[in-house]
Amino acid sequence: MKFRLAAFGLHLAGSALALTLVLGAFWLGWYRWPGWYLASVLHVAGILVLVDLVLGPTLTLIVANPGKPRAELARDISIIVAVQLIALVYGSLTLWGGRPLYYTFSADRLQLVQASDLKPDDIAIARHENPALAPWWYSRPRWVWAPLPGNAEEALRLVRGALSGRPDVIQMPRYFRPWEQGLPELRQHLQKLDELRDFSPAEKRTLQSRLAERGLAADQANGMVMWGGTRRVLAVFDLGTLTIRALIRAD
């Protein structure tokens, strides 16, 4: 039994180290709050934990029979490790493809833009026309303003395209502008919690309680919805500086 436990412990320690390095790098680089929540990546992380920290070491505990020939034992453990590595690579590629690249303000809301939301053609155009805010392989999440273009015909075309399922302006980095330039318009769209239609009455009660816990007022026009797929949080702004004071879940 000591042999099995020793093999289990070594396998668990190695798997934990590899998983910590991978998930830690993604969290530090791209998935800090609210990225992990809005991008809905916990299920991917959960699968990685299940395979690398539970299934792999447990299988090693089962196959690590001290009476088994060393060549056979090495083969069995190699197969287990290979499956773990495949799962780790697949999970890493999924996290890489879904990594948050932008938090955009456009129209009357904040929205998450992930790497998978951007088409290669739009990325190429942005690198040519707007290189300072274009996405690169090393880009980390940035807060940007995504206004419609000044040309009325072009703006109308984009709006109609978005309504019919084609890419929206937040998926076209060529149009992005520095975050600070959009703050005057952002101020005009701030609302009180009760005025935000994207939250249900039950969610508003939850948000009101969480605002009170943080000492933030719920009766000031200082809030805006922030979307990421089907998930959303409440962004609360300082009315003086327009810095974000909190990003609060409603669930």
Summarize the entry for a quick read.
Helix content is 49%, strand content 15%. It has 251 residues and is an alpha/beta fold.
Description:
By secondary structure, the chain is an alpha/beta fold. It has three domains: 2-97, no CATH class; 100-185, no CATH class; 190-251, no CATH class. It contains eight helices and seven strands; from the N terminus they run ααααββαβαβααβββ. It has helices at residues 2-29, 35-38, 42-63, 70-97, 120-129, 152-163, 183-188, 201-213, and strands at 100-106, 109-114, 142-145, 177-178, 223-228, 231-237, 244-249. It has a seven-stranded mixed beta sheet with strand order 4-3-1-2-5-6-7. Helix 1 (2-29) packs antiparallel against helix 3 (42-63), helix 1 packs parallel to helix 4 (70-97) and helix 3 packs antiparallel against helix 4 (70-97). The model has no long low-confidence stretch (mean pLDDT 92).
Features:
251 residues, alpha/beta, 3 domains, seven-stranded mixed beta sheet
Topology, please?
Layout: H1 2-29, H2 35-38, H3 42-63, H4 70-97, E1 100-106, E2 109-114, H5 120-129, E3 142-145, H6 152-163, E4 177-178, H7 183-188, H8 201-213, E5 223-228, E6 231-237, E7 244-249
Helix pairs in contact: 1-3, 1-4, 3-4
